[in-house]
Amino acid sequence: MPSAESTQASVHEPAPGPVRPTREDEVAAAGSELIGGPAGRRALLGTSWWTPVRVVALVAIGMFALGLVQKAPCYHSAWFFGASSQYTKACYSDIPHLYQGRGFADGLVPYFDKLTGDMPYLEYPVLTGVFMEVASWLTPHSGTIQHQEQWYWMVNAGMLMVCAAVIAVCVVRTHARRPWDGLLVALAPAFALTATINWDLLAVALTAAAMLMWSRRRSLAFGVLLGLATAAKLYPVLLLGPLLVLCWRAGRWRDFGKALAGAVVAWLVVNVPVMAFASDGWWQFYRFSHDRGVDFGSFWLIWAQNSSSPPSIDFVNTVATLLVVLCFLGIAALALFAPRRPRFAQLAFLVVAAFILTNKVYSPQYVLWLVPLAVLARPKWRDFLIWQACEVAYFLGIWMYLAYTTSGDAHKGLPTHGYQWAIAVHLAGTVYLCAIVVRDILMPERDVVRQGGDDDPSGGVLDGAPDAFVLGTSGHSRLHAAHFGGPPVEWGSRIPAPPDDRSL
């Protein structure tokens, strides 16, 4: 009887060599004509200085710089003179406005010092508040307030550019045989347009680094980085749900326990000091998230704007929570019933997308949450660019709508119904990509990652592991039975471990 190691190698052994998108993706091949055509067989051997990591990192920095240029009209005048011009030029950013609005110009300490105005404390998670405060320390507190705000935005842009490079490099290294998929992140137009609207790139970078650590089978490091990401933005904690279901199906409880412990401890280390000594300020993020009404970008706004009796905040909070929980349960069922265990990145993308689709607000920079997950889940240029086109349309739509609402009788921009169509386009693009990912899960032979011979390159200990528990007779359980003996396992049953489970 063959050993577990040799059997797993025969079942999941990937095809040799890195994947060349210009050879396997028709859209990538067509686009490559701009730079000389598809890569030759020696292009990816790594013998020159131009390795995939360096190329992708430089492209990401270049695109980030183009995003800064796109904000130039606001940098020079629109942030300071006239509300509508920063919208008509689509260069709005929260960063310069919150420099003074959240007390950084006055040297106030986030969470500890109370603010004047409608917002009593900084309404961001603690690690993001630390990021904002560090940028304030690096900002010259001299000259006019406009000069200081320009400096504050530029300092934050430099720090966020590092985050953007980290994200691109992590995606390159997560799928070792598909390093050039990182170009999807680096070249994503919505990524460049929204990178400096807010501070979301910090959480995205930590999440991308966590995904890389999981792919390297470093469960504890994954948990620590995910806990830090959750201390910067709430959405990264959602990744623990898919990981729980996949580890359940694979019987990898110890690794999940390490990841969970690392996440909890890291989150507590960041949050407990502020919770203990500035509890009112610490709660502000959660109070604000609960109490805010229906806002931009959500299907709830379309409902509210077309109803004579808009839904109340309590109703929206309750129903939105119910909807996202139902989506999560559906994703869990998909993971347990699928003919082959889904890849971690696929489920991670689906849960974050479900949260975005059902939430009561969708700020344009939230697309940053999905970009690296989308690349890892569905590295297909056509589908990715269709989704990005929808997000760019929404990016332009929200600014044109705000221009319309702030330009008075001039009515410059996009009226309400036009903005509702922009929201619908964003929702449709996200649903489209979700549907493609679900199809790949139900039909693994359509998954471009698995077509190349890989199983789950971002899955770490899940990569190539046999199932330990399934709902239904899955193809993977039949594969297990064929190589380890015994009949396929039926609905809700446990699959016997292979002879040497430690070797897997």
Question: What would you note in describing this structure?
Answer:
This protein is an all-alpha fold. The protein has one domain. It has helices spanning 4-12, 21-24, 26-31, 52-70, 72-78, 85-88, 94-101, 126-137, 145-174, 182-187, 189-194, 200-215, 219-232, 240-250, 253-277, 279-291, 299-305, 313-337, 344-358, 367-377, 381-406, 416-442, 448-451, 475-484. It is globular. It starts with a helix and ends in a 20-residue tail after the last helix.
Give the structure's gist in a few sentences.
The protein has helices at 4-12, 21-24, 26-31, 52-70, 72-78, 85-88, 94-101, 126-137, 145-174, 182-187, 189-194, 200-215, 219-232, 240-250, 253-277, 279-291, 299-305, 313-337, 344-358, 367-377, 381-406, 416-442, 448-451, 475-484.
Question: What's the topology here?
Answer:
Blueprint: H1 4-12, H2 21-24, H3 26-31, H4 52-70, H5 72-78, H6 85-88, H7 94-101, H8 126-137, H9 145-174, H10 182-187, H11 189-194, H12 200-215, H13 219-232, H14 240-250, H15 253-277, H16 279-291, H17 299-305, H18 313-337, H19 344-358, H20 367-377, H21 381-406, H22 416-442, H23 448-451, H24 475-484
Strand-residue proportion: under 5%
Q: Return the string of H and E elements.
A: HHHHHHHHHHHHHHHHHHHHHHHH
Percent helix: 55-70%
- Count of β-strands: 0
Number of domains: 1
- The gyration radius over C-alpha positions equals 24 Å
Backbone shape: globular
What integer is the average pLDDT? 87
The main sheet comes to: none
Could you tell me how far the N terminus lies from the C terminus, measured between alpha carbons in angstroms?
16 Å
How does the helix and strand content classify structurally? mainly alpha
